[in-house]
Amino acid sequence: MQEVAIDRKIDLRGTVCPMNFVKTKLALEEMETGEVLEVVLDTGEPIRNVPRSLKEEGHKILRVTRLEDTFAVLVEKG
Amino acid sequence: MAEEGIIVDVTEAENPTTQAVRRLKDSGYIKQRQGAYHSLRIRIRGGRVKADELAKLAKVANQYGSGEFHFTMRKGIEIPWVKFEDLEAATKAVEEAGFVLAGCGPRTRAVFNCMGSVCPYSAIDVFAIVDEMDRRYFDSHLEQNPRRFPHKFKMSVTGCAIGCAKPQFNEVGLMGVTFPGLEIEKCIGCRLCAEVCQEFGSIDDASSAWEMVPAKPEHDWIREEPVFAPDLCIGCGDCLRACPTDAIPSVRSGLRVFIGGKFGRHPSYGHIMADYATVEEAFIITDRVREFYQKEGKRGERLSQVIERVGMEEVRERVLQGLRKELGEMNPRLPRVRV
Fold first, then answer.
1. SS3 for A19?
2. Is B166 left (phi over 0), alpha (psi -120 to 50) or beta?
């Protein structure tokens, strides 16, 4: 698997839906197309919903990595 | 199919008061515990009403009722506190506002549904289906020959396996279901499908319908890849929505058809009559189930009791006759009630 350069990171542990999606969206808005954001999300509703919403907004999910009780999601701005 | 009016035997022994109350219920007037008042039950097709039309109904509630609406369990609207002597005028006002009353008693009740045409979980166009069901079957407002059944006949349409409109507890319940495929070349091995899938082999078993296993050598762009256990799948679509790369498409979608469910004092969980039926097939099944109930049901029996008496195998044979064989072949784990 290729290494991906991460341009920005946000930690949304403890942030509930839909605020986690809103914050991710705002972070992406400040970035350039093609740049990569790492988002850390809780298990359960956040990981079920946020990647899907990002996909629907036209961004590309590059990788999802399971950490202990969280997930690190790499998103390329679309 | 022609909607023939069939007169179910009405006991002659009913006294005039009982008869009068029954006639009122038939027409959608529900007697209140406060003697002189009735509640007018109004059918709201598919649970959707235009705000402007509701404003017209509000005038009726102000003029003839207490100025309050009551929202019924089947998404109808009732105007309570209508005086007996005002029933006729209030009915006329309701009809002029563009609505029809929803009769109670032994007949097709208002079809009940979820928000499936706008809800992200839904696998089907719920509003289109519920409107068509209403058009075909809801007839209690018709003066001539509304179809009388041995007892009430309820139907519901729900968009997904979560089942907000409780299809399992209606005489006929339709549920949208969708079956996943896998396009491995799009997979990034993220394991979200396995993460979101809630359909486990058993309560103690940690493996769900999607499991991650070491990737095959030819899938060298990922470390792990998902494998699917179709027998565990209930068609909820969680994996399709969760997959961030659209590697899991819907390969089949349709309607799971429940029959013979009810609530009330002795609730009964509907039998699954067919799975992944087309809308057209679901209507054929509905027509046949209604015919069966009218023919075999004794007065006062709900469909669940008739099925119990006749036997589900026979009902299945009669209802599915001539239809695709696959309709009756469903996941053996369905229906499943977790305890």
1. helix
2. left
CB contact under 8 A, A64 and B246: no
Distances (CA, A) of B285 to A39, B281, B290, B296, B304: 48, 6, 9, 16, 16
Query: Which three-class secondary structure state does DSSP give residue B136?
Result: helix
* Alpha-carbon distance A16 to nearest alpha carbon in chain B (angstroms): 17
Is residue B109 within 8 A of residue B102, CB to CB? The reply is yes
d(CA B195, CA B233): 14
Q: Which residues in chain B show pLDDT less than 50?
A: 1-12, 337-339
Q: What is the pTM of this model?
A: 0.88
Q: What is the pLDDT of residues B262-284, one digit of tens each?
A: 999 999 999 999 999 999 999 99
d(CA A40, CA B118): 29
Candidates A48, A52, A66; nearest CB to B191? A66
Nearest-CA neighbor of B212 among B190, B233, B232, B231?
B190
